[in-house]
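User: Show me a protein chain along with its predicted structure.
Assistant: Here is one chain, sequence first, then structure tokens.
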Amino acid sequence: MDFVKGQLVRSKAGRDRNRTFAVMAVEGQMLYLADGGLRGMARPKAKKTRHVAPTATVLQGESLANDKQLNEAIRAYDAEHPI
């Protein structure tokens, strides 16, 4: 699976299991993830691709402008797609 910037993913492993993140960057098998809350865009979390489950949702434009808008977009997604 190819990941793209802005794509929403759910963590499958680690203490952040079942949390939703947005992909900020892709480098080989590593993804850099942010959620606008605990993990802001300024310091994204590095996670291997095998430890996340991709979704079909890709955030565009203003949703990736700052942490607050990113967090609101992820909360809206979680409300529509509960675990």
